[in-house]
Write a structure and sequence with these properties.
By secondary structure, the chain is α/β, with parallel strands linked by helices. It has helices spanning about 50-55, 60-80, 120-145, 185-200, 205-215, 220-230; strands at about 5-10, 15-25, 30-35, 35-40, 80-85, 90-95, 100-105, 110-115, 155-160, 165-170, 175. A hairpin with a 6-residue loop joins strand 1 and strand 2 (about 15-25).
């Protein structure tokens, strides 16, 4: 590297940062962040010891601007993501924040939280939002369906099963896989009808399927959708 350009090291709390020193005819010393890199522009005659002092005094400013740059870069990358909800695809827009927040506005899901640039953190945040939506939407749909059931439910909850979309116990407790919140409502309704039919028949006999048909005529299309697209529904953990 020639005399007009050199590399310095600036210790920061998150680790040492390389600073590109550019010697140029000018009256003062300047610092800039360019494409995520730190550049120090100084007149040729300014000694290195003084430049290190300048960097040390400006270390807080440099650290905050680097963090902002990395957050913006992460946000741009995350914005390209998609989230499926109720059979509709929504854009994902993320910002760095100290607290977790989620809001669906128009065609975009806005997420805020710490360290969402990390894939695991982002996935956990998306799952948290989808599970919250599942609790609300499933409760509303179950309230619509329960009057049609041959027996009343004694309770319900969310499931994270990897291979089952729903289950029903002999005591009348139904569990619905939270991932169904991503599917069209007709598919969710089919799974609900399926489990409500188990309240009467704890098997898959012709009588069971007749009960499914009584509860939800034309269920075959929703079942086919689940067979074709179920594996594509987002899962985590």
């Amino acid at each position: 590297m020639n005399a007009k350009h050199a590399l310095l090291s600036l210790p920061l709390p998150q680790g040492a940062v390389t600073v590109r020193l550019i010697r140029r005819a000018r009256q003062s010393v300047g610092i800039r962040i360019k494409h995520g890199a730190v550049e120090l522009i100084a007149p040729p005659a300014v000694p290195l010891a003084y430049l290190h002092e300048v960097l040390a005094k400006k270390s807080g400013w440099i650290a905050s601007h680097l963090a902002r740059h990395h957050a913006e870069q992460g946000e741009r990358a995350l914005t390209q993501g998609q989230v499926l909800l109720g059979g509709e695809s929504y854009r994902l827009h993320c910002v760095a924040a100290s607290r977790h927040q989620a809001q669906l506005l128009g065609d975009t899901l806005h997420l805020a939280g710490p360290m969402l640039e990390q894939p695991a953190r982002l996935a956990a945040s998306v799952v948290g939002y989808l599970q919250q939506e599942a609790r609300q939407r499933f409760a509303a749909r179950l309230a619509q369906w329960q009057p049609r059931a041959a027996r009343p439910l004694t309770g319900w909850g969310l499931s994270s099963a990897r291979t089952r979309w729903g289950s029903c116990t002999g005591k009348g407790v139904v569990r619905l896989n939270w991932r169904l919140v991503q599917a069209p409502e007709s598919v969710l309704d089919y799974v609900i009808a399926h489990e409500l039919a188990h309240l009467l028949h704890m098997n898959h006999s012709p009588a069971f399927w007749a009960e499914v048909g009584r509860l939800y005529p034309g269920w075959q299309g929703a079942r086919q959708w689940l067979k074709q697209h179920g594996d594509s529904l987002f899962r985590y953990g």
